[in-house]
């Protein structure tokens, strides 16, 4: 720093600026209401990390006298630009308050709100005034220390247990500079907190302008141990435990605690067992105690031991029981010390009776039973369900099983022994008598007065008495069942007729049923296996049933019989008896098969037909043919032709009668031709075909016209005659060589109801005008300069057409192909010609061109400025699908245009320094009708040069450079820019040095400036020169002074010793003494030594 210069501290400069601002606002309020300041900030509030960078634009849309930024860092001098930027690379001023001001009609300003934040250096969590394990239920304090954080009013401390948020702490202190803060949290841990992870997090909530998510720093996790009193698991150790005699139980006492508890059992006064389990039985004391103990406390649980007993017995009865009698069972439950929920009685596995009792005691429960035969050998027991508190809330105790014997009277099985048994003559039946009883019964049969048979089975026949009896007997009683024996007989016959029957006549059959002793449900008549008649009769007797029949030809050889369905009581409720079969013979008149012999038979000239006459009859008929008056042919078949009489007759004859069938012989003819036309037809013209059908003697169902194999026209005519049918056709090019014919469908009566006759085929030739293939020759063909295209013109026609091209007025090219280029006329014509006509197709030749250029600008561009590129597409005659802009190989902009024209597309770009030398081009995608629907054309590449303002390398040129006195430093200023910038240094007011390097020393001004300049702009960097004191000369001066002082002392000693010696010897040489004096004066010039030492002392700070 130069002597005499005045330097203001930053705090004083801020105070001065605030004073000016206050005065300005005061005078503005006195002068009247100020209009809104006509400047806009790009951001109303910024949030900046300490030592971070910030940039805010201030712009205006009015003309002004000057505007600028006032700030303690990064102030911008007043300028007449309409946008200025406040920019600081490393913001460190905590209470900075920048504002943008403007001089318009009067001066006004807009302040920018700046929040500078700093995340904490460290966040830690600890326990206050405590160490070691915690005790459950006691209160403790946690502390979170946050070091060096700003701003504190935006700080939130969040408390977590694991991932769960417990609480938040905020701070009301308003401070812009970093502070250390402490937050506390009171907790009361329980057993679930043992080993839990607690942590705290410091979070700066800086609003929407701040970083997202908010800056956050979390402490290390704090884990602690919690001691808690034991808790015995009551689910595993109930308060009441039932013990059944002879079945010991194991009690398990488990307890949870920290430290782990010890388990012991107290049985009676002095017995203690140290174990988690205890085996108890009927000898165990009534009350036992489980004790769980640790350093945090002691827990005791009492267990009541309940000895259980239960039994079942009959009341006032011993021995077997009789089915159907009443008896009583009792269930005795002894020494029950907890509630009985219910008592259940069981027989085998079926619940019989349930009683619910809630009061424990020595209890007796009774139940009345009435056993039946099914209960013989059944087992009964009772079961008590007990309600207790424990891992299983309910327990069950069961009595032994009580088995009973039940005696029962015999019961005869009626399903196996019916009350009525039919017996058909010659077919004995076996009766089976089975009976169930306890004790097992004996079986016997009674036949008549004195006959008894001791057996379970009995064989009966037509000689057996009408009534027999089965007797079943045991010690409980006797059972008898009567069986009625019914002898059965049935027959069938004709009534008043013998021999063959005549078809269609009436006859009578009868069915005789003899000695029926039980109901006849119904009587059915059968022919073969088909039911014919059913009659229902309910009264048994000797009965005769009749039925009338009228046999036809199908009944010849048929068998008839009758069947009676009988209703009886027995294992099978119904039984059936059938008569023998009665076979009949039926004679009938001949019937000629009309399917094989139609009434009308068409005969085509030259094609004989064979007629077949078949007839069915009994006896078998004879066949003959009658042709004309006297001609008779005896044969089943007859050959006919165009010479056969128009009517022939088939005669079938037998002993029953005679049948005759007439056949009409029809000679057929059909033909097809054109009407009033010969030779080839012209495609698209109308023509007429006719179909002539001659001598049709039966109905024409329809007439069909065919082209190849496709039906074209159908006409339906029902009246036979010599007929002519016509149809109009309009052939097209596809019909060339087609064959037409007509077909008549005839309706007749015969084996085939319909027959068909067809005309010969008529082949036609069709001449057609040429058709040019538009798929191969589009109406618009794009041609790019330098790339010829080949057009292909193909045409279809009959006769084959000739192809020619018309170019301009007089140029004709005879060829199917034509090569076109940018020199080809705009319109060319393909002409296809034959005798049927001429077709012309116009092709528009579209010369395509595309170019790219800048709009209203030439030469280099300036980085950051806006420019416009245009893409000019010339002479586009079909749709442009889209236009794309490219920079290098990246698509930048896409526009979609659907209307063809001479079009110009524009795009705005804002190049930066990286775009220097970049290449831009545009590309148009074209939509056309052709083999490839889309084609693409691209402009040449446009290379741009970008000039940009210099950027000084701050790494090589720091903002503060220390300089030691006497040791010069060399500063190097390097800058990047286009064009290459020139470097100069500004020292003071008027000193400018043009060089990239500058040597500085203690005489250099405090502030020097490196200026990098080119045509795109100017960049200045201030360097602060810090002069440092050099203490090396002072140290050297002290060393020199000490050396000189020692030298003087030695010289004086030497002189003294020398003079002393001479004095002692009486000799003194004045001349020699003067010589020594001069030597001393020459050796140490005292004046210079003193001046040097004084200067050194003055230089010492």
From TrEMBL:
<dbReference type="GO" id="GO:0007155">
    <property type="term" value="P:cell adhesion"/>
</dbReference>
<dbReference type="InterPro" id="IPR013783">
    <property type="entry name" value="Ig-like_fold"/>
</dbReference>
<feature type="domain" description="Ig-like">
    <location>
        <begin position="684"/>
        <end position="758"/>
    </location>
</feature>
<feature type="domain" description="Ig-like">
    <location>
        <begin position="950"/>
        <end position="1026"/>
    </location>
</feature>
<protein>
    <recommendedName>
        <fullName>Ig-like domain-containing protein</fullName>
    </recommendedName>
</protein>
<feature type="domain" description="Ig-like">
    <location>
        <begin position="324"/>
        <end position="398"/>
    </location>
</feature>
<dbReference type="GO" id="GO:0005178">
    <property type="term" value="F:integrin binding"/>
</dbReference>
<feature type="domain" description="Ig-like">
    <location>
        <begin position="410"/>
        <end position="486"/>
    </location>
</feature>
<keyword id="KW-1133">Transmembrane helix</keyword>
<dbReference type="InterPro" id="IPR047012">
    <property type="entry name" value="ICAM_VCAM"/>
</dbReference>
<feature type="domain" description="Ig-like">
    <location>
        <begin position="864"/>
        <end position="938"/>
    </location>
</feature>
<keyword id="KW-0472">Membrane</keyword>
<feature type="domain" description="Ig-like">
    <location>
        <begin position="230"/>
        <end position="306"/>
    </location>
</feature>
<feature type="domain" description="Ig-like">
    <location>
        <begin position="504"/>
        <end position="578"/>
    </location>
</feature>
<feature type="signal peptide">
    <location>
        <begin position="1"/>
        <end position="35"/>
    </location>
</feature>
<keyword id="KW-0732">Signal</keyword>
<dbReference type="InterPro" id="IPR007110">
    <property type="entry name" value="Ig-like_dom"/>
</dbReference>
<dbReference type="InterPro" id="IPR003599">
    <property type="entry name" value="Ig_sub"/>
</dbReference>
<keyword id="KW-0812">Transmembrane</keyword>
<dbReference type="InterPro" id="IPR003598">
    <property type="entry name" value="Ig_sub2"/>
</dbReference>
<dbReference type="InterPro" id="IPR036179">
    <property type="entry name" value="Ig-like_dom_sf"/>
</dbReference>
<dbReference type="InterPro" id="IPR013098">
    <property type="entry name" value="Ig_I-set"/>
</dbReference>
<feature type="domain" description="Ig-like">
    <location>
        <begin position="590"/>
        <end position="666"/>
    </location>
</feature>
<feature type="domain" description="Ig-like">
    <location>
        <begin position="770"/>
        <end position="846"/>
    </location>
</feature>
<dbReference type="Pfam" id="PF07679">
    <property type="entry name" value="I-set"/>
</dbReference>
<feature type="transmembrane region" description="Helical">
    <location>
        <begin position="1031"/>
        <end position="1057"/>
    </location>
</feature>
<feature type="domain" description="Ig-like">
    <location>
        <begin position="120"/>
        <end position="223"/>
    </location>
</feature>
